[in-house]
Each structure stands twice: as C-alpha cells, then as structure tokens.
C-alpha cells in the first residue's frame, strides 16, 4: 500500500528549488562576467549615436506641469 509522506515531498521540492537556484545563479554569473570580459577586451563595441539637432525643425513645447519647479527662487551664494 502506498502512503504519501509529506515531509519527504517537501524535502524533495526544497532540494529541487535549491539546485535550480544555484544552477541559475551559475548561468547568470557566466553570462554577466563573460559579457563584462568581452567589453573590457574590446570584443563588443557600440556605435556612437548621433546627438546633433542640426536641421531639426521640431518645436518643443514645455508642458505646464514641467514649469512647477521654475517658480523656485534661485540659490543665493
């Protein structure tokens, strides 16, 4: 006859969670440290994005909610 042992089931679930957590931590460490090492070695580079607004005809209107802080008095030295 089969008897369900709750203590044993909880122990198995706990062990599985711990093994999964350690495996996940190891994998994420490998990914993060590998990426940092590749960046430091220059194997991964990022293009510099253009930041010029030359020739831009867009007229930005500041929303009224952004003007709340503009009523503050300037700092006196």
Q: How would you describe this protein?
A:
The protein is an all-alpha fold. The protein has one domain. 47% of the residues lie in helices and 0% in strands. It has 1 helix and no strands. The longest helix is centred in the first third of the chain and has 36 residues, at 6-41. The radius of gyration is 29 Å and the shape is elongated. The mean pLDDT is 83.
Strand content: under 5%
What is the general shape?
elongated
Largest sheet: none
What Rg, in angstroms, do the CA atoms define?
29 Å
Number of helices: 1
Mean pLDDT: 83
Helix content: 40-55%
| Secondary-structure element string | H
SSE map:
Layout: H1 6-41
Annotation keywords:
mainly alpha, 0% strand
Quick structural overview:
This protein has one helix at residues 6-41. With 77 residues, the chain is mainly α.
């Amino acid at each position: 006859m089969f008897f369900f042992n709750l203590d044993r089931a909880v122990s198995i679930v706990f062990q599985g969670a711990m093994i999964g957590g350690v495996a996940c931590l190891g994998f994420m460490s490998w990914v993060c440290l590998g990426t940092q090492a590749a960046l430091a070695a220059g194997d991964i580079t990022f293009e510099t994005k253009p930041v010029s607004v030359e020739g831009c005809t867009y007229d930005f209107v500041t929303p009224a909610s952004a003007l709340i802080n503009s009523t503050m008095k300037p700092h006196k030295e």
